[in-house]
Amino acid sequence: MKLPSFAIMLALLMAGSSTAVAASRDEQTKACKADAMRLCSAEIPNKDKIEACMKEHIDQLSPPCKKMFQPSAADSQ
């Protein structure tokens, strides 16, 4: 199954996440694309479901992707 809009959907997902605001869309996509495909492919293209799935599997995310879902210092102020 070819998912041509996956990168766009993932970018929108990450851009909408308040914990990932500091990272660029390219960085977010690069960090999380493989994890999203591995863990949450059934949720594509629903960005809300992808984000919920990624958060549900946070312990299984790669370190770069996990960092995208952790609150930044600015979020905690």
Continuous helix count = 4
SSE series: HHHH
- Structural class comes to mainly alpha
The tally of beta strands, per DSSP, is 0
For the sheet with most strands, the description reads: none
Based on Cα principal axes, name the global outline: globular
Distance between the termini: 43 Å
Mean pLDDT: 75
Keywords:
56% helix, mainly alpha, 4 helices, globular, 77 residues
Folded structure, characterized:
This protein is mainly alpha-helical and 77 residues long. Helix content is 56%, strand content 0%. The protein contains four helices and no strands. It has helices at 6-16, 25-40, 47-56, 63-68. Helix 1 crosses helix 3 (47-56) and helix 2 crosses helix 3. It is globular and about 25 Å long.
Quick recap:
The chain has helices spanning 6-16, 25-40, 47-56, 63-68. It is mainly α and 77 residues long. Helix 2 (25-40) packs across helix 3 (47-56).
Helices and strands in order:
Blueprint: H1 6-16, H2 25-40, H3 47-56, H4 63-68
